[in-house]
Amino acid sequence: MVSLQPPVCDFDEPAIDFTLPGVDGKSWNLADCAGEKGLLVMFICNHCPYVKSIRDRIVRDTRELKSLGVNTVAIMSNDPTDYEEDSFENMKKVSDEFGFEFPYLIDETQQVAKAYGAVCTPDFFGYNGDLKLQYRGRLDESRKEAAAESVKRDLFEGMKEVAETGKGPAEQIPSMGCSIKWKEG
């Protein structure tokens, strides 16, 4: 399993529209997902140990961000051919098990991940109310195992700043995770 870090935040890069199917049976696009104060676009999957270690924190932080006007969408772009755990059926199970309060979408063509420049799971893209990129950092210092509860909540604090000011923090620590499992060819 390859561990990768995404590049630093490309401030003010516009969010890219998409239309993808969700585990709830609906089709979602960028406008459907956006919140008044911003949008967090997360590229996650089910099998990655980096994602598994923080799923409960993702649920906690996204719930709190929603109360600040920042909505969230999770996109699964891995090719599930070699990772059955990432199948659409298993996405539904994980969403139900962890109580995802945000759309969990499948990017079967992988075009959305490529358009965003996503490189790993988890990969977080935090946008302001104008859907301009302001955060491209980590959730916290967790890796394949969750960090202590007392660690700084980088993503939450960064997106709270975005909700309050429209701008993200100048200093951001990149996320780290497993490479996206690209289809061959």
CATH architecture descriptor: 3-Layer(aba) Sandwich
Beginning-to-end CA distance, first to last residue: 20 Å
Radius of gyration: 15 Å
Mean pLDDT: 95
Based on the model shown, name its key terms.
185 residues; 10 strands; Glutaredoxin; alpha+beta; 21% strand; globular; three-stranded antiparallel β-sheet; PRX-like1
Task: Describe the protein's architecture and organization.
The chain is α+β, with helices and mostly antiparallel strands. The chain has one domain (3-179): Glutaredoxin. The protein has helices at 30-33, 49-52, 55-67, 88-98, 111-116, 154-165, and strands at 3-4, 19-21, 27-29, 38-43, 70-76, 104-106, 120-121, 123-128, 133-135, 177-179. Strands 6-5-4-8-9 form a five-stranded mixed sheet. The chain has a three-stranded antiparallel sheet with strand order 1-10-7. The protein has a two-stranded antiparallel sheet with strand order 2-3. Helix 4 (88-98) links the parallel strand 5 and strand 6 (104-106). The longest helix is centred in the first third of the chain and has 13 residues, at 55-67. The chain starts with a strand and ends in a 6-residue tail after the last strand.
